[in-house]
Prior knowledge:
It contains 13 helices and 12 strands. The protein is of the alpha/beta class.
Amino acid sequence: xxxxxxxxxxxxxxxxxxxxxxxxxxxxxxxxxxxxxxxxxxxxxxxxxxxxxxxxxxxxxxxxxxxxxxxxxxxxxxxxxxxxxxxxxxxxxxxxxxxxxxxxxxxxxxxxxxxxxxxxxxxxxxxxxxxxxxxxxxxxxxxxxxxxxxxxxxxxxxxxxxxxxxxxxxxxxxxxxxxxxxxxxxxxxxxxxxxxxxxxxxxxxxxxxxxxxxxxxxxxxxxxxxxxxxxxxxxxxxxxxxxxxxxxxxxxxxxxxxxxxxxxxxxxxxxxxxxxxxxxxxxxxxxxxxxxxxxxxxxxxxxxxxxxxxxxxxxxxxxxxxxxxxxxxxxxxx
Length: 334
């Protein structure tokens, strides 16, 4: 990895093995990973987790990958990110996403209306608070009349990255964000997605190269490839019920397989449903096997226009204590 290249690592904070995971995170930083990413779905809390990382790391950027914008107000998120930015000396990436109606509406009782508009407005409010400490905004989804009282000493404000799968959000990321985080996409699909990002940047009068292009690169460095593929197949099956992901997966030729997942699920065949996703499809968007295969996968993403690959170790829960560090170590410097 060239000295100016970025390479991230997806991680998490598990209270049951807190000390062990922090030791791995410190090792990852020593191995040269330039950013550490915390996802948030149903726990742990991403902001609390990043605060722990801020206190236990020295130089890596600390990112949410990602938090749903609808379940906290823009002001509350801005306070959280600014606080961690202070604790870390200016190392925060505010990774934002619009999640899904199931998570936003069913789980949290919030509104999922106009997701692209909501994201644009949320970023506007957070930018105001990050740079001016004051937000006065009236939009279609959000309004804000809020002044921060916290003292800011960090050398620069948090960066803002948008999770984006499809053209409208990719273009918005190019227009208003510092970076983008893509997900579940094969290397051959990246160039058109990068084009959408660059279209948005140029439309806003920005230099396209100013937008950092990130993606979660899922992989499991293991000798038990069949077991890891089967675990990933079950993971993918859950996205058959998320419209934004279905639209993206259809571009990759997986529409019929995801239709079959939904059919089997509706018929109560829930153990059988994931098997509708073929091994070929799993291997199209993730890597299983040796370190050489994993490093080649990262190189293919870089060649397609990704500037910030984020290694996302996957695999069966039963072997995670082995597979996660093996994958992390094998991909260092990729």
